[in-house]
Amino acid sequence: MSQKVGDRLKAVRTMYGLSQRELARRAGVTNSTISTIEQNRVSPSVDSLAKVLAGIPMSLINFFTIDLENGEEIFFRKEELVELSDGTMSMRLVGATRKDRNLRVLHEIYPPGGDTGDNLIVQKGEEAGVVVRGKLEVTVGERVQVLGPGDAYYFNAEIPHRFRNAGDIECEVVSAATPPSY
């Protein structure tokens, strides 16, 4: 094993929010064992490292393959969100460039009278959202409800649905869906 094992162990331990003492307790080893590995003063055997990693818990394969310097963006400024607007409303997609995205998060703005269109939306998965400002009429199948600030929705997205601003001011919504349809 390379000298980087200690650096990697410290990074993984820190990423999981564990102190050296807590990891040692969980793994059933001494605190000095963790300390000397992290200082790269010893090169642990595969069995010793596996025992330490069991305290996280993490496999040897994950330990050596986890991307500690993940180049993917985590934070996004308003101007970096991808606009998916059709002109009648604004939908800004969070994390559009992330590979293997399993979640769609939108910041939606509906002008007075703005809606998702005449055709009801049907997609796989689930959808949820919270109204931040204004009034949002949500239609899910035969059910219709007008929601205000702080009100929320959560439904099976395979049921035909649509959204419409039911007020006379802009309506702002933050929504999520899984799996992402776009």
TrEMBL record:
Q: Does the keyword Repeat apply?
A: no
Keyword list, A-Z:
DNA-binding
What PROSITE patterns does the record point to? HTH_CROC1
Q: Which residues form the HTH cro/C1-type domain?
A: 9-63
InterPro entries per the UniProt record, alphabetical: Cro/C1-type_HTH, Cupin_2, Lambda_DNA-bd_dom_sf, RmlC-like_jellyroll, RmlC_Cupin_sf, TransReg_Diox_bact_type
Q: What is this protein called?
A: XRE family transcriptional regulator
Q: Which organism is it from?
A: Thalassospira xiamenensis
